[in-house]
Design goal:
Length: about 425
């Protein structure tokens, strides 16, 4: 599969280069070339509820890599990445619930990070290479990488935290104890810390010398792995489908939405996405979707900040100038807080499902549009991206009770006292990287 850039359609690089480099030099982000999507229609109609998630991930990995690595290597990457899978259940005749929170830390992020690490560990071993992640974290990403990188030989991670926010680590995770995580507390705000990382990745010589890369969805490997959810969900419920398929999901940073659209490009049957409106993706007076960034041309924008994933730019790139196409696939809905809470209560009372704010808002979009869709024999798939335990206060406030917290999720939330010097500058960060790598 060939990857190009949101700022330069003439760029053409293989999957491995897009993953290792993280960002193209033109200031945009990597996206798959529209012409390089395979038509997987026959495979999609062949898979069924007995097809394992890892098998679906392995087949799509082969589609991403094509001739770069053998199908056996692709299957190895998928198998080692996913000791867990999505869970889908039927709530009503035309309503299904897709849960993406059964990984290490109760967040859909677990799938993408685990896949990225499996890809890098496997391919680095084959090619004799090493990789070092450098990312900002509120704590969740650091805790997740500590779990995923445990025992791996070819990947390390430098995690930058605001002072006093380190969570989910254990002594044996740390580099000075033989682990793979170098946690660093930084004096300053989140914005200041992200600026330090942005400046670090603007130094191409330094990033190349120390094999630095990103673990957030700026890295296209993380984004592409989210495609796996959609054919898996289709395979699980295809025997119960009678009409069009619509997904309802929280936009978040737009990565899951973009991945769903990419799955359609692989010929997966789906008819659209209902999302709660966001400041960047909303509806105009006629109800048509509007990407506000589109009013500023790509040539007039600054470079993508590696620490703030530019998936909204990927969304723009997917639709290009085709306004009719985006109207046919993306349906933003203005959801008030009152309607969000009402939806959370209805979901709990009718189906026993506890919802975080994102899931509640997504269900509210279903409630607003169900008559139109269900009258045409359509099906809704409600996507829950985060475990409700991560929003215990919200559940207690809206539903009157809190969800049980899985042990692994509780472990990832435990504060950790680092007891190491606090950094403040880019040069101090570079010195630590030089000392450890």
């Amino acid at each position: 599969m060939i990857f190009t850039s949101t700022r330069n359609n003439n760029l053409a690089v293989p999957f491995s280069q897009a993953v290792l480099k993280s960002l193209p030099e033109d200031g945009g982000v990597y996206v798959p070339s529209a012409s390089s999507f395979e038509d997987l229609r026959r495979w999609i109609y062949y898979i069924n509820k007995d097809t394992p998630f890892t098998s679906i991930a392995g087949t799509l990995t082969s589609a991403f890599m094509q001739d770069e690595f053998s199908p056996i290597i692709c299957e190895t990457i998928a198998t080692s990445a996913f000791p867990f899978s999505p869970v889908i259940s039927q709530l009503d005749d035309n309503l299904f619930h897709l849960e993406l929170f059964h990984g290490y830390t109760g967040c859909h992020r677990d799938f993408g990070v685990s896949y990225l690490c499996s890809y890098l560990e496997t391919t680095n071993e084959l090619l004799g290479k090493k990789s070092v992640f450098v990312d900002f974290t509120h704590g969740e990403l650091g805790a997740l990488l500590a779990k995923v990188l445990h025992g791996k030989k070819n990947i390390k991670a430098v995690m930058l935290y605001e002072k006093g926010t380190v969570r989910g680590l254990h002594d044996d995770d740390l580099i000075w104890n033989g682990g793979n995580i170098l946690p660093i507390e930084v004096e300053g705000s989140e914005k200041q810390i992200k600026n330090i990382i942005r400046e670090l990745f603007s130094d191409d010589d330094f990033t190349d010398r120390y094999n630095l890369t990103l673990a957030n969805t700026t890295n296209v490997c993380r984004l592409m792995s989210q495609i796996f959810y959609f054919p898996y969900a289709f395979a699980q419920i295809k025997e119960n489908l009678h009409g069009d398929i619509y997904y309802a999901l929280d936009a978040g940073n737009y990565s899951t939405l973009v991945a769903g659209l990419y799955s359609w490009r692989f010929a997966l049957p789906l008819n659209g996405f209902y999302i709660p409106s966001t400041p960047a993706l909303c509806a105009d007076a006629k109800g048509n979707p509007v990407v506000l960034d589109s009013y500023v041309g790509m040539d007039k924008r600054g470079e993508v900040n590696p620490v703030n994933p530019a998936n909204i730019e990927r969304l723009e790139s997917f639709f290009g100038k085709n306004e009719l196409m985006i109207r046919s696939f993306v349906y933003p809905c203005d959801i008030s807080e009152r309607n969000r809470e009402k939806a959370a209560k209805e979901l709990f009372i009718n189906y026993g499902v506890m919802a975080d704010p994102g899931t509640a808002g997504s269900y509210a979009t279903i409630l607003e549009n169900k008559d139109e869709i269900l009258n045409d024999d359509g099906t809704f798939i409600l996507v829950s991206q985060n475990h409700p335990a991560l929003s215990s206060d919200y559940c207690r406030h809206v539903l009157g009770e809190s969800p049980e917290i899985p042990a692994t999720v509780a472990d990832s939330l435990k504060p950790y006292m680092l007891k190491r010097p606090v950094l403040a500058t880019l040069e101090q960060l570079k010195d630590l990287i030089k000392q450890n790598f």
